[in-house]
Design a protein that fits this description.
It is an enzyme of class 6 (ligase). Keywords: Aminoacyl-tRNA synthetase, ATP-binding, Ligase, Nucleotide-binding, Protein biosynthesis. It holds the Pfam family tRNA-synt_1. The structure is a single chain. 43% of the residues lie in helices and 12% in strands. It is an alpha+beta fold and 1261 residues long. Helix 1 (7-14) crosses helix 3.
Length: 1261
């Protein structure tokens, strides 16, 4: 029998601590041991399956928050169980030490939250029993005409659990789906789960490498010898002494392999994956079985009304979805939308494949930027005739390769304006920059070629792709005939575009690099004599420029001071400070003095030296005056390109726009230049390497094709397509304007293979953004094919096998033809059933997405719909609604900040309904939204009190009256109707914050105000029940659980609230006059309170000039009485202004409120009667006009411009005398017309009264 472990050993083993610990590790071990003997008992017993292993009581609450999910079998399709035999403590303590310490403190009391959670659990169980969200297309003619609403969300990627960002965008579709259901429509609201692409496989392979690396380190000693597994006391002692040093060595080894980034193992731990389960994720298929069930669980707990029968996992794991994607691409191929050819493509060097947006860790939306690289040839003979000391390092490097034959050496400069080469006076280098001397080909090994279509493309794709031209140093020296001097970054891009040979790395994990003869500083290049193609000057020199970026272009900048303001000012700086530049950079006068700007392009209004002219006009001081230089650059470049006329060269007399490409092609033909591409901005792949632009053979979608683009543009501009945001619509127009070919094939990752490559020697995967453009159509039939199995491993209710789903079958189902497929073994009635589902639900009515997908996925979707259904624009998407990213408490959500919230954790902390309310309140525009914990926590209390109020109202615990309705009842009912209508308008406009304001916050405020209006008479039972029902219905789209609970369990309504209609009221039930009366009462109370506060301050010895302060022992007399003055009409001047304002145009703004343009100011200003007034009266008139049109119009609409109120204001106030008295704490209050004075009042207060603005005077009774 094995000896019992000591408490210290048990702790060390349980928490995977090494036998020898660093000082910090030893402190951790002692801290764990100090948590008491019960912990040791727990750890010891965990090793024995026959003994119970209870979690210590002190950890029970934390364990419930951090309990790990069990490891599902790799091929199991069932979701992870809620229970687990794995002890949760290791994860718990890691969480305590790193993450939970940074989290905000939880509220002390959890009773209200727990009650809401129990309500949510019960309601979700009822929904699961009754399946209200599973709706099929009607089969009978009687119901076929029922309106439908089909909404969707871009399926989330399954490389982790869903978080608050997913929840925010999902909510914006969810709220609309529930709202539209209440409008009497059939709703289709499905959700697929995305696994296509590189990230999952890249993470799995990365984890696999880390596991192999760790195993190798454990099996081998420091010098690689096999470690013996026999430990003596002496070895233990030595290890204990050197433990900390060994730990550092191991850490440095891993860091050398992985860099400073977290290892995949650490990332998995940070995701809450139990350490014992992490190794299983080295199999990419395990991700597909693990995360999708968790996503379904979290979305269901969030209360989303998803039809899960239609859910699916992408990739060929689901054979039905795989068949659908193959049909889509076969159709695109037949329609000529797919092409094959050598393209300039953003490449992941490590993965050796195109790196699309979804494959990137940073740089999403970045594409290749094309330059022309011009060779500035080194004049070797001239350099030898006039040797310069700072050139010696360069000379020595070039001497070393002479044995391999003469090689042309050139500084290569990248430019966007090859047509300006005639005006070169010099080139610039960065003195502190590092430049390499790279062996190069005169004729590239790759070139951009014409696209192949159809079978030609399929045959060409069979050839093996070579991304790098690998050579030994000897081969490269013998083969290359040129040497390029440029930055390392640009050389890497050139190598993948066929211009430079590459050298294989000795380390198998390292990537190949271009053959570099050596590096020199920019200082060593200053003064080099160069021959510049097309230049007027036969020799130009390299000069220093201090603002060059080595991360853009080649690090060498050609200088055309006539047309480039930066070049001109840099040259002037050198000329103006010759001594400084000679001493600092070795610049000689003969390199600068003879060179003046050359007139090459004439621009109307700017002349033949536009940069010189504008720099002088705008008084640019130096090359550091970046703002002015940027403004001049934009002006010169724009006018020069469109209006400029060349003055020199074979194209003299032609417009720059016409000559640019001609001049570039001439340079390329003479081998003095070449086309060069690099990423517009840095792009980092998820595998960690910085991407380059490579020339590679690609299958690509020809989005830039003219007719296709024009079709999409026309649809975007039509009334059929909506975005509910001018900014979003503008973005779509912009993207369609620049979007061109999109590489859609990959060699690495998960997904569906291009059909014609699947059985070839080089099968090609479809890129993840390209196979996710029309899958919404698959939702329509998924439930009939898959049998409620997201993996598609079982036949659906129609009993169709995947082998039966031919392209001809899909053609019929998706309305490509009306003819039933010949030879199909699927019964005709089943085919018609699928066709009926598609035709009923399509088109897609709404797609909600983050704004970042405008630049790819959403625009691709429009293109694909136009290609698949070219003659059926009635089947194209109807609306795209986009939102910004989510922040938490005005900070970016991040694990490093400790404010990262998963949906799972958010529900536990706030409840589903409170999270949904806080997300609705977070924001509605494309600006980043702000989820506030304070709002979520406050909502817990609000919803809890709502449920309590409903219970008390229905049970009789709340005193309510019955009988006839009072004025207060009528006012309150009108406010209920008003809030309901305004909430509806907000939902329709996707203004969920406004819907929440009207449907929850204002509804509660109006109820509380009604209670005050009623006073001792109590609220009316009918009004309270009406309010409760309406409150549940207006809030149900956002907080469905609590509303369903009150509706069904407290109000005892027979049907589910999710199936109820939006509240309706009799026609003309909304009375704007009653609404204005209600607002007048509320506003009057607020104004009167402020007046009373000032009066009390005055009585207490306030700040009135000359007034003596009241003695401290003498109390101020109480203001117990008041007189309210009411004006029947405005003073003559204000009546005059209102009459004029009635002529001004008014309209409803985006927020639904009435507003006016600036025209009203001109109407008032230009009136003869107003102009005849004195200065003070005119000022008063303009101020009144501004107030009415800015504030009153927004509050009351057009009635704010009426000369009289549409009701008796004096009678209104008198009828609510008791409410006003109680609100102001008065014994008596009287009401008088403003033209009658009260005997107690000698103030001017009564003259302040205006219609709708009564004044008040307080006095001591």
């Amino acid at each position: 029998m094995a000896a019992c472990k000591s408490a210290g050993e048990a702790v060390r083993d349980r928490f995977h601590l090494p036998s020898t610990l660093s000082p910090s590790g030893e402190r951790l071990r002692r801290a764990l041991l100090a948590l008491s003997q019960p912990l040791s008992q727990f750890v010891s017993s965990a090793a024995s399956p026959s003994l119970p292993s209870p979690t210590p009581k002190r950890f029970s609450s934390l364990a419930s928050l951090r309990a790990p999910l069990p490891l599902p079998a790799v091929l199991s399709r069932s979701p992870p169980s809620a229970s687990s035999s794995a002890a949760p403590l290791p994860v718990l303590f890691r969480g305590l030490s790193s993450k939970m310490a940074a989290a905000p403190a939880a509220p002390q009391s959890r009773g209200r939250r727990d009650k809401l959670l129990s309500i949510e659990e019960a309601i979700q169980a009822r929904w699961a029993r009754e399946n209200p969200y599973e709706v099929d297309a009607p089969l009978d003619a009687a119901n076929a005409e029922k309106k439908k609403y089909f909404c969707s969300f871009p399926y989330p990627y399954m490389n982790g659990k869903l978080h608050l960002g997913h929840g925010f965008t999902l909510c914006r579709a969810e709220f609309q789906a529930r709202f539209q259901r209440m409008q009497g429509k059939n709703i289709l609201w499905p959700l697929g789960l995305h696994c296509t692409g590189m990230p999952i496989l890249a993470c799995a392979d990365k984890l696999k490498r880390e596991i192999a690396m760790r195993k190798a380190e454990q099996d081998c000693g420091e010098n690689g010898e096999k470690r013996e597994h026999v430990e003596s006391a002496e070895n233990n002692s030595a290890e204990q002494q050197n433990g900390e040093e060994d730990a550092k060595k191991k850490k440095s080894k891993v860091a050398a392999k992985t860099g400073n980034a977290k290892t995949q193992w650490e990332i998995m731990l940070g995701m809450g994956i139990p350490e014992a389960e992490i190794a299983a994720f080295a199999d990419a298929q395990h991700w597909l079985r693990y995360f999708p069930p968790l996503a379904k669980r979290d979305v269901t707990r969030m209360g989303f009304g998803i039809d899960w029968r239609r859910s699916f996992v992408t990739t060929d794991v689901n054979p039905f979805y795989d068949a659908f994607i193959r049909w889509q691409f076969n159709t695109l191929m037949k329609r000529g939308k797919l092409k094959f050819g050598m393209r300039a493509t953003i490449l992941s060097r490590r993965e050796k494949q195109a790196c699309a947006d979804h494959d990137r860790a940073s740089g999403e939306g970045v594409g290749p930027q094309e330059y022309t690289v011009v060779k500035l040839f080194l004049q070797g003979e001239k350099m030898r005739e006039a040797p310069v000391p700072q050139h010696q390092p360069l000379v020595q490097l070039l001497e070393a390769v002479k044995a391999y034959g003469a090689k042309k050496v050139s500084l290569v400069a990248a430019t966007l304006r090859p047509e300006t080469m005639y005006g070169q006076t010099n080139c610039y280098v960065l003195p502190e920059g590092k430049y390499g001397l790279y062996l190069a080909f005169t004729n590239p090994k790759k070139s951009l070629d014409k696209a192949e279509e159809g079978d030609g493309g399929a045959q060409a794709a069979e050839s093996e792709e070579e991304f790098e031209t690998l050579m030994t140093r000897e081969e490269a020296l013998s083969t290359c005939t040129e040497v390029f001097i440029c930055s390392e970054r640009s050389a890497l891009n050139m190598a993948y575009q066929g211009w430079l040979p590459m050298q294989a790395a000795e380390d198998p994990d390292a990537l190949p690099v271009p053959h570099c003869l050596g590096t020199v500083d920019g200082m060593n290049l200053i003064g080099l004599p160069l021959t510049a193609p097309n230049a007027t000057y036969p020799t130009i020199y390299a000069l220093p420029m201090l603002t060059i970026s080595m991360n853009k272009g080649t690090g060498v900048v050609m200088s055309v001071p006539s047309d480039a303001p930066d070049d001109y000012m840099a040259l002037q700086d050198i000329k103006n400070k010759p001594d400084f530049f000679k001493d600092r950079y070795g610049v000689l006068p003969e390199w600068v003095g003879p060179f003046e700007p050359v007139a090459i392009i004439d621009i109307p209004d700017l002349g033949a030296l536009p940069a010189v002219t504008l720099c002088k006009e705008k008084k640019v001081a130096s090359q550091k005056d970046t703002q002015k230089l940027q403004e001049i650059k934009e002006e010169v470049y724009k006018k020069g390109f469109y209006d400029g006329v060349l003055l020199v060269g074979p194209c003299a007399g032609q417009k720059v726009a016409d000559a640019k490409t001609v001049i570039r092609d001439q340079l390329i033909e003479r081998k003095e230049a070449f086309r060069y591409f690099e990423p517009e901005k840095p792009v980092v792949a998820r595998s960690g390497d910085e991407c380059v632009v490579a020339f590679m053979h690609q299958w690509y979608l020809d989005y830039g094709e003219e007719k296709w683009r024009e079709t999409v543009e026309a649809y975007i501009n039509s009334e059929q397509f909506q975005t509910f945001s001018p900014q979003v619509l503008h973005q779509f127009k912009h993207v369609v304007g620049w979007l061109r070919e999109w590489a859609c094939s990959r060699s690495y990752g998960l997904g569906t293979y291009l059909p014609w490559t699947k059985n070839s020697s080089r099968p090609v995967l479809i890129e993840s953004l390209s196979d996710s453009t029309i899958y919404m159509a698959y939702y329509a039939i998924a439930h009939l094919l898959q049998g409620n199995d997201m993996y598609g491993q079982a036949k659906g209710p129609l009993g169709i096998a995947v082998e039966q789903l031919t392209d001809e079958v899909f053609d019929y189902v998706f309305a490509q033809t009306d003819d039933l497929p010949k030879g199909s073994t699927i019964p005709a009635e089943h085919l018609k059933r699928m066709r009926n589902e598609f035709e009923y639900w399509y088109p897609l009515d709404l797609r909600v997405s983050g704004k970042d997908l405008i630049f790819n996925h959403l625009t691709f979707s429009l293109y694909s719909h136009a290609a698949i259904w070219p003659h059926r624009p009635d089947l194209w998407p109807r609306a795209f609604v986009c939102n910004g990213h989510i922040m938490v408490d005005a900070q970016k959500m991040s694990k490093s900040l400790g404010n990262f919230i998963s949906i799972e954790d958010g529900i536990k902390e706030f409840t589903a309904d409170a999270m949904r309310v806080a997300l609705a309140d977070a924001g509605d525009t494309t600006d980043d939204a702000n989820f506030q914990r304070e709002t979520a926590n406050g909502t817990i209390m609000r919803l809890y009190l709502l449920e309590q109020f409903a219970n008390e109202a229905v049970s009789g615990a709340l005193p309510l009256r019955t009988g006839r309705y009072s004025d207060a009842d009528r006012l309150f009912l009108n406010e209920i109707v008003t809030c309901t209508q305004e909430a509806k308008e907000a939902y329709e406009g996707f203004q969920y914050r406004e819907a929440l304001k009207k449907g929850l916050y204002e509804m509660h405020t109006r109820r509380d105000q009604y209670r005050l209006l009623c006073g001792e008479d109590h609220m009316h039972k009918d009004m309270v029940v009406t309010w409760l029902k309406t409150q549940c219905q207006t809030l149900a789209p956002i907080a469905p659980h609590i509303c369903e609970h009150i509706w069904s369990e407290i109000l005892k309504e027979p049907s589910l609230i999710v199936s109820s209609a939006w509240p309706t009221f009799p026609e003309h039930a909304q009375d704007p006059v009653l609404h204005r009366q209600f607002l007048l009462l509320l506003a009057s109370v607020e104004d009167f309170r402020r007046t009373k506060d000032k009066a009390v301050q005055m009585l207490s010895g306030g700040k009135k000039k000359g007034q003596q302060p009241r003695p401290a022992d003498q109390a101020a007399p109480a203001l117990t009485h008041a007189v309210v003055y009411v004006a029947k009409e405005y003073p003559p001047l204000q009546q005059q202004v209102l009459t004029l304002l009635q002529k001004a145009p008014i309209h409803k703004g985006e927020d639904g409120a009435w507003c006016a343009g600036k025209e009203y100011m001109d109407i008032v200003k230009n009136d003869e009667g107003i102009n005849a007034l004195d200065k003070n009266a005119k000022k008063e008139a303009m101020a009144f006009a501004s107030f009415q049109m800015r504030d009153e119009l927004k509050a009351y609409g057009r009635s704010a411009l009426d000369l009289r109120l549409p009701f008796d204001e004096l009678n209104l106030l008198q009828s609510h005398q008791r409410y006003l008295q109680a609100s102001l704490g008065l014994t008596e209050i009287v009401f008088l017309p403003s033209d009658e004075a009260h005997p107690k009042d000698d103030s001017p207060n009564r003259k302040l009264a205006k219609p709708g603005k009564p004044s008040i005077f307080f006095y001591v009774g």
